[in-house]
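Thread: Newbie trying to understand structure tokens

Hi all, I'm a second-year student working on a class project, and my supervisor (Dr. K.) asked me to get a predicted structure for one chain before our next meeting. I've only ever worked with sequences, so writing a 3D structure as a token string is new to me. If someone could post the tokens and maybe explain what I'm looking at, I'd be very grateful. Here's the chain:
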Amino acid sequence: MIQVNNVSLSFGKRTLFENVNLKFTPGNCYGLIGANGAGKSTFLKLLSGEIETTHGEIIITKGERIAMLKQNHYEYDNEKVIDTVIMGNTKLYQIMKEKEELYSHTEFTDEDGIRLGNLEAMFSELNGWEAESEAGNLLNNLGIDTTFHYSLMKDIPNKLKVKVLLAQALFGNPDILLLDEPTND
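---
Reply by user tm_fold:
Sure, no problem. This is what the structure looks like when written as tokens:
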């Protein structure tokens, strides 16, 4: 569940939203409609926590994970397709990157070893050993051939980019899914 209480958002002197109150309940689908530039994408960024409110609060049921299909299909151009999908679970991806960095050290300290042990435990709890396989299955199920999985995002057709970003949003089975212009391209 997401609850929006007296939310306002201003950029300088321009107020985009003022005293918005909404309650999104489980099991329902909601849509935002409005003119271009009205603030729909910005409102979704507020809900996802990507940007902060000027006033008010957004409450998300404790323990629920939000994922968002982003509108910017070029944000990940220098990333591999498979990595872009795994980035959908931010915590898992950060653990993977920190592990890679620690394993790249030519000399290990005791602290490095302890940290790696902790990271490996968290990685396992988040089903990290199956992450690449699950990401690949998502991509395949969305019609993205295996030949693209290890390509850079900038090297795949634009019509596939939105599917990769959808796979990213679905990766890790989020409790709440926000879709920003899912029919683009």
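A couple of things are worth pointing out once you decode it. The radius of gyration is 19 Å. The longest strand covers residues 14-24. Feel free to ask follow-ups in this thread.
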